[in-house]
Amino acid sequence: MANVDASVVVPARNERRCLEQTLESLSAQTFDGRLEIVVVASDSKTVRTAREHPVVDRVRVDDKRAGPGPARNMGVAASSGDVLLFTDADTVVPPTWVRRHCRHYVTPAVVGVGGPLRPLEDAFRHRACFRVLSDWWYRACWPLGFVQQPGCNCSIRRSAFETIGGFDGSLRFLEDTDISLRLRHTGTVVYDHTCPVETSARRQERIGYGRLLWTYLVGYLEYTLPNRSPSRNYFR
């Protein structure tokens, strides 16, 4: 697909059941420019679901299953948009999602955009915890330079993505935080609190918010230490 304005990359590992609703939300986008959808799938059933959906332009098979970072890099390599958007296969984006992200790139200095997360599950504890951990936390940290574009609701200008070498394939955890921190040295990374997405709270259900918070705190510490990298992988 030539002359694409924006590309959406969706890594999908064993997500046949959830992927359909993600793709349906992408098919409802009100974006006026040229848009392509690339799915990077790692199992035959998910690959088939992606290939059968009319909104998907390209499907790449992730045989190595090395993690979300390498999968996203694979998707970018198969795409051609000037703006790269990333979401996950258990996430539903609003119809204005692509348009809201892309409007920021009219400003040449902007190299990345992130937004808040909301839970797909309608339970008070999920709504409250997501509000604190996946919105207010970003609002507090962003002005301090600790930018953290969530992997299921972020976008990057392709030229900046290529400049910094994309996602660090050696990281299986906090790879989205890592690319955000490297990205901010190339330009402005915007937090748009008016551009939320809804994502599954199934991992929070399985692990618990207390353990999840501890996992992130330890991961942040490991990330800041020399010759260390965050090894936690609660996403498995």
Task: Provide a quick synopsis of the model.
By secondary structure, this protein is an alpha/beta fold.
Task: Map the helices and strands.
Blueprint (H helix, E strand, L loop, with lengths): L5 E7 L3 H12 L7 E7 L2 H9 L5 E4 L6 H10 L5 E4 L4 E2 L4 H7 L6 E5 L2 E3 L4 H18 L12 E4 H7 L10 H9 L4 E4 L5 E3 L2 H6 L1 H16 L12
Helix pairs in contact: 1-2
What does this structure look like?
One of its GO terms (molecular function) is glycosyltransferase activity. It holds the Pfam family Glycos_transf_2. Residues 7-162 form the Glycosyltransferase 2-like domain. Keywords: Cell membrane, Glycosyltransferase, Membrane, Transferase. It is found in: Cell membrane. With 236 residues, the chain is α/β, with parallel strands linked by helices. The protein has a single domain, classed as Spore Coat Polysaccharide Biosynthesis Protein SpsA, Chain A (Alpha-Beta Complex), CATH 3.90.550. It has nine helices and ten strands. The protein has helices at 16-27, 44-52, 68-77, 97-103, 124-141, 158-164, 175-183, 202-207, 209-224, and strands spanning 6-12, 35-41, 58-61, 83-86, 91-92, 110-114, 117-119, 154-157, 188-191, 197-199. It has a seven-stranded mixed β-sheet, with helices on both faces. The longest helix is centred in the middle third of the chain and has 18 residues, at 124-141. Residues 232-236 have low confidence and may be disordered.
